[in-house]
């Protein structure tokens, strides 16, 4: 039976058989992108480039107020109902993603070096499975821990009364915000990065390391300048995978970000870390019940479009970076 | 047993059988058997591969650079040391070949000369190694490994360009990152000494891993030479290479000999004979015999040496 199936499966047929799903996936993704773009079109059309901007829209108010007034527009809203300047949400998304990935890269590379080069076998036999387990923890659990533990901790111990008062007319500081969001997001994306980078580091031939050591460089330099350098493509791949996860994280960030369409201000110094925000994905998740408002619907699709395009750009970028690194022989 | 076993004498009892069985080991047999494809079959009439490699017996006259003094290496709980109280001198301008059956401790001995053995968990050392009158334990590790540089059995160029490979150690040892232009003369010099310059000079930015095996090994030699070592350690540098590349590298060893001391581990007796000035024969961790190449091969004094050398030369 099996032999009969195997017999007529020529390379050409196998190619078609395997190629068909790949083509189907590409088509589905393209269709999705086109559909989302069409749905998002009205809001882009009404706002122009101002859509990406900051500050009050022509109709006034913060992003959250703009979103709120869209709900009242109903199914056939006037053009003014579309008015929005989405910068705070975009900034919140970029900020949480970039920070958590940046921290994640450093932490995961160091952790992988520890696991592969330094950890005694017994420690390693515990750490590796635990890391893989952590990578599979549902994000809502991180959100719960954030709300129950981290947010009260930040509110009670880290934010001083002086800090609270200095910005009280602009934004209330209650615990949830950038710091808790980034900490939890980092915690969420780092395990998978550690797992991927550990695998890559383990596949680095011993000979490269020994070769470097035999040339009189220190262990640390041998690791950094040869082993880590050699696995840069894997680090890029891990970072992109983690970015996609961070960009799309909605529930957890909705729980711990303070869910406020506010762009944290770096010029506020340390307070910056405690200021609330709300990324695009969380905004989508929180507004889905008001989808029968045409203006809001189009706006949410626009958020989705932005996230989709970001992921495509990340994947493409990583593809080209990896290609140029591999041309030099990195793996 | 594809090689004709023409034993000139009968080793006594079961011990003799055991030793015959122990070497040469099957893996290396291939390398040994393959070598004659470039060399005539009868060792007595064998023309040396290249006239420049041919040379008269030359006693090592240079001053002593490296002295291995009662060196023993133990691995973990193994009762018998992998290297057992070996004493050997290495002179300036000589090629010292370490020969012996697989597992006799050649690699272990070589790796202890630049303290690379300390990377192996559980490896312990007794005895001293002296470089130019100084105990190597007293030298800074990074300094030692630049003075005593190493080429490995498997070519191991880094996944970088040819230039970056040779410049690697130079860059690592300087505080401020030197520019490519500053490095080029030294990179070129190293590549020339390794006999690779003419083949790669047109494109130094090529990935090193795209080179052929023989070129890769010469690149590794260039990389090791770039730090201007006093002693060059080579662990079976040709065992992973084809006969032509082997010839090229042997020629190279011959040319480099005047500038530095070379210790080469080889499994290939013909190779030891072609490139070495002095030969040390090891067996099960013991140094059995040490002496000028010609003498050791033609008039071995120890019976084990006679057996081992005789195994190939009939
Ligand atoms: N890392 C190690 N741990 C334990 N024993 C080892 C290790 N490396 C080598 N040995 C043992 O030491 C002996 C000498 O090995 P080696 O120096 O590699 O021999 P050679 O290079 O002459 O083939 C062998 O018996 C080998 O089994
Ligand atoms: Mg060996």
From TrEMBL, chain A:
Pfam family, any one: BPD_transp_1
PROSITE patterns: ABC_TM1
GO molecular function: phosphate transmembrane transporter activity
Keyword Chaperone: no
Main subcellular location: membrane
InterPro entries: MetI-like, MetI-like_sf, Phosphate_PstC, Phosphate_Transport_Permease
Function: Part of the binding-protein-dependent transport system for phosphate; probably responsible for the translocation of the substrate across the membrane.
Descriptive protein name: Phosphate transport system permease protein
Automatic annotation (TrEMBL), chain B:
Positions with biased composition (Basic and acidic residues): 1-12
Origin superkingdom: Bacteria
InterPro entries in UniProt: AAA+_ATPase (IPR003593), ABC_transporter-like_ATP-bd (IPR003439), ABC_transporter-like_CS (IPR017871), P-loop_NTPase (IPR027417), PstB-like (IPR005670)
Gene3D superfamilies for the chain: P-loop containing nucleotide triphosphate hydrolases
Domain ABC transporter: from-to ranges: 66-309
Classification via SMART domains: AAA (SM00382)
A single Gene Ontology CC term: membrane
GO molecular function term, any single one: ATP binding
Keywords: ATP-binding, Nucleotide-binding, Translocase, Transport
Region (Disordered): 1-45
GO biological process, one term: phosphate ion transmembrane transport
Entries under PANTHER family matching the protein: ABC TRANSPORTER I FAMILY MEMBER 17
Name of this protein: Phosphate transport ATP-binding protein PstB (TC 3.A.1.7.1)
């Amino acid at each position: 039976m099996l032999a009969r199936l195997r017999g007529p499966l020529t390379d050409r047929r196998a190619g078609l058989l395997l190629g068909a799903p790949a083509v189907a996936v590409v088509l589905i993704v393209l269709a999705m992108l086109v559909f989302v773009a069409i749905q998002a079109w009205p809001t882009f059309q009404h706002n122009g480039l101002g859509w990406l901007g900051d500050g009050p829209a022509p109709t006034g108010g913060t992003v959250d107020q703009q979103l709120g007034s869209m709900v009242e527009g109903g199914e056939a809203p006037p053009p003014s109902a579309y008015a929005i300047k989405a910068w705070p949400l975009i900034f919140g998304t970029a900020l949480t993603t970039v920070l958590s990935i940046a921290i994640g890269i450093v932490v995961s590379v160091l952790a992988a070096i520890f696991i592969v080069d330094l950890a005694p076998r017994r420690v390693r036999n515990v750490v590796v499975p635990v890391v893989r387990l952590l990578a599979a923890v549902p994000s809502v659990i991180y959100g719960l821990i954030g709300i129950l533990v981290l947010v009260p901790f930040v509110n009670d111990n880290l934010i001083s009364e002086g800090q609270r008062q200095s910005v009280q007319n602009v934004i209330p500081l209650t615990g949830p915000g950038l710091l808790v969001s980034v900490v939890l997001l980092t915690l969420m994306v780092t395990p998978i990065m550690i797992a991927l980078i550990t695998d890559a580091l383990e596949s680095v031939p011993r000979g490269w390391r020994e070769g470097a050591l035999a040339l009189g460089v220190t262990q640390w330099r041998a690791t950094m300048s040869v082993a880590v350098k050699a696995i840069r493509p894997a680090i890029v791949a891990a970072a992109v995978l983690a970015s996609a996860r961070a960009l799309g994280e909605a529930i957890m960030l909705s729980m711990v970000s303070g869910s406020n369409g506010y762009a944290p201000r770096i010029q506020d110094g340390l307070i910056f870390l405690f200021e609330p925000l709300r990324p695009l994905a969380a905004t989508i998740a929180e507004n889905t019940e008001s989808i029968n408002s045409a203006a809001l619907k189009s706006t949410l699709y626009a958020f989705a479009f932005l996230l989709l395009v970001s992921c495509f750009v990340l994947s493409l970028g990583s593809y080209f970076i990896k290609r140029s690194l591999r041309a030099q022989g990195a793996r | 047993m594809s090689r004709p076993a023409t034993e000139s004498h009968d080793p006594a009892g079961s011990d003799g059988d055991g030793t015959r069985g122990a070497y040469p080991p099957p893996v290396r047999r291939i390398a040994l058997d393959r070598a004659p494809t470039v060399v005539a079959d009868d060792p007595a009439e064998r023309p040396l591969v290249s006239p420049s490699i041919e040379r008269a017996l030359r006693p090592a006259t240079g001053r002593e650079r490296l002295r291995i003094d009662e060196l023993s290496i133990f691995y973990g709980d193994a009762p018998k040391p992998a290297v057992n109280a070996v004493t050997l001198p290495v002179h300036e301008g000589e090629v010292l070949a370490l020969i012996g059956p697989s597992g006799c401790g050649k690699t272990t001995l070589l790796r202890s000369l630049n303290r690379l053995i300390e990377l192996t968990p559980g490896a312990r050392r007794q005895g001293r190694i002296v470089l130019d009158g100084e105990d190597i334990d007293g030298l800074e590790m990074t300094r030692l490994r630049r003075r005593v540089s190493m080429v490995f059995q498997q070519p191991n160029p880094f996944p970088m360009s040819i230039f970056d490979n040779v410049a690697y150690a130079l860059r690592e040892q300087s505080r401020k990152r030197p520019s490519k232009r500053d490095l080029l003369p030294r990179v070129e010099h190293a590549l020339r000494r390794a006999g690779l310059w003419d083949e790669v000079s047109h494109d130094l930015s090529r990935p090193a891993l795209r080179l052929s095996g023989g070129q890769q090994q010469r690149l590794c030699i260039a990389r090791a030479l770039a730090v201007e070592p006093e002693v060059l350690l080579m662990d079976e540098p040709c065992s992973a290479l084809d006969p032509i590349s082997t010839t090229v590298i042997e020629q190279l060893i011959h040319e480099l000999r005047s500038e530095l001391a070379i210790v080469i581990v080889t499994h290939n007796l013909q190779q030891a004979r072609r490139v070495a000035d002095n030969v040390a024969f090891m067996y099960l961790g013991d140094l059995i015999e040490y002496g000028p190449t010609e003498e050791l091969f033609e008039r071995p004094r120890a019976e084990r040496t006679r057996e081992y050398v005789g195994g190939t030369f009939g």
